[in-house]
Amino acid sequence: MPADNTDRLAVAARHRHELTRAKAIRALGELARTGGAVSFELVARTAGVSRSWLYSQPDIRGQIQQLRSTTRRAPSSPVPATQRASDASLRHRLQAASERNRNLSEENRRLRRQLAEALGQLRTPGKARSSITIGPC
Q: Looking at the whole model, is its pTM more than 0.70?
């Protein structure tokens, strides 16, 4: 009677699956760093796996689709993933720009008020003119 090797075969299959996943994930990372176009064909060729296997892995398929859509949006010189601005970074920059805009608007209001007061003093007839100083610019 032949020996039952199903346990060893299952362990070998799991090991082969994990190695294949590692190769695919490594290839995805490499392609993301370079910032070039990403496709299932390119990932399969780079990782040495089949396209059908890539399609059967939901998480890897999602990453490929995300990278593919990202690189499609910017046909000119693509930016590598490590240099792309995060959502939090963009929100922070928008908040800083809004704050700067508020400060500049307030400064403009203050300067207009000072200018109006200075012009009013110059136009007032018969009043002794004092030295007019408009605040710092």
A: no
Lowest mean pLDDT among 44-53, 75-84, 99-108: 75-84
Instruction: Report in angstroms the alpha-carbon separations of 20 from 25, 26, 28, 63, 74.
Output: 9, 10, 12, 16, 30
Instruction: Name the token pair of 99.
Output: 């704050």
Least confident of 37-51, 84-98, 115-129: 115-129
Domain boundaries, the chain: 7-83, 85-126
Rounded to a whole number of angstroms, the CA Rg of the chain reads: 32
CA 92 to chain centre: 12
